[in-house]
Amino acid sequence: MRSILRLVSVTTLAAALAAVPGSAQKTTGPKERYEMDVATASGFAAMAAGGKPGLGSAMSMMFGGGPEGKVAHTLELRLGSNQGPTSPPVRGDHIFEPQAKLGKSVPLLGPEPGKGQTQNDGNDMGGSGFERPKGRMLLYWGCGATPGPGQPVVIDFSKLAAGQMPPDLFTTTIPRIRQVAASNSASYAAWPNAKSSKQPPKDSSLLGAHRIASNVGSDINFTLAQDYMPALNASATQQADGSVMLRWDAVQAATGYVAWTFGGMGRGGDGGDIVWWTSSSARQFGGGLWDWLPPATVARLVTQKVVMPPSQTSCQIPAAVKQASGEMLFGNLNAFGPEVDFAYPPKPAGKAVWNIDWTAKARFRSHSSLLIGADFGGGSGNAASAPREKKKKKCKGPLGIPLPPGAC
After folding, report:
1. Rounded Cα–Cα distance for residues 327 and 320 (Å)
2. Model pLDDT for residues 267-315, shown as the tens digit of each residue
């Protein structure tokens, strides 16, 4: 039954529950849905999570030392209800145990009047805000010293209409999954928001009781036995053949891994090439691959060789990728993790109608970002070693293509 609760809309959820093969039990609801996205960030991703987004900001922080050992915890909370607030505006509180170190609670707030949705609705998938660059993009995929056949795929931005997103750039077969969003809720509230956004410290814990009280439905109560995932300890080493070996320590509870790199960043204004590589054995970029994914989805993608299995702890970036990227690449490694689902009241026995009041989900991942080919103040920076050169201008991002939240 847990896998069914991952569906996106309330209507689809109710219909699916009512149509479980071999079951005549009918369901109603849920009236409320709650979702917790729980992440552990390390390396440059931890620096971004600490409130200084942007690779340029991370670089300015790095002179004098690398990001080794830097860890941050992040939460995204979303509440959706099919009921209106008892007294507008929509508001709520997520009440924690003391070990969460977030105070007694954090406020869940709805959209401010006249300002649209709160900041983490979660449906802003890649492509929005795309700025037309002048150069080309070279796409590579797969682990190994040399690229597979048909690589690279070249996207010439000069041949695209102004403002047009390159076709098939971001995967559509692995979308970002948000069960709770403003678009599928009569009432919606989220955290972080404009009034509260300070993330928990790295020694915080989510174990224990959680309560969500709001003015759009009954209280939601559940207990978590799953905590933040361990940090990803990743490193990259230049190989004699020009390839780069990416290695990481196995992460407890990981269901699979995916890695990607960007190279040639900052060349867009000069009409140069940017290089995008992913560890997927198939040409799959973006989407849910840099987000949270259900364990069942990850297991399927592992069999399809889109996601690396949890037993894998290394991946070789082809020499052609490093050569085309220039002296430095920005990399990211994502470890998908478990999900925990709750529903109230409990499912009744037999064929009695299950009138679901609320559902709740907590989903987990661990991710790390690193600079490959950079040396900051003598520190490794979790990067392949390279000679120190004069300071370059700050990175502007990969030809205007937006990186995912928390990637740099």
Report:
1. 13
2. 555 667 889 999 999 888 888 888 999 999 999 999 999 999 999 999 9
CB 1 within 8 A of CB 292: no
> What is the rounded distance in angstroms from the CA atom of residue 317 to the CA atom of residue 243?
6
Backbone φ and ψ of 34, nearest 5°: -130, 145
Task: Report d(CA 77, CA 199) in Å as an integer.
Answer: 12
| Cα gap 301→173, rounded to integer Å | 11
pTM, rounded to two decimals: 0.80
Q: Kindly write down the DSSP assignment for every residue of 247-292, as one continuous string.
A: EEPPPTT--EEEEEEEESTT-GGGT-EEEEEES-SSS--SGGGGS-
35, 292 in Cβ contact below 8 A?
Answer: no
CA torsion 58-61-63-69 (nearest 10°) is -80
The one-character DSSP state at 27 is: E
Residue type, 90: V
Domain boundaries, the chain: 3-372
β-bridge partners, 330: 262, 371
341-347 own/partner pairs: CB under 8 Å, 24+ apart: 341/2, 341/5, 341/6, 342/222, 343/1, 343/5, 343/30, 344/220, 344/221, 347/1, 347/25
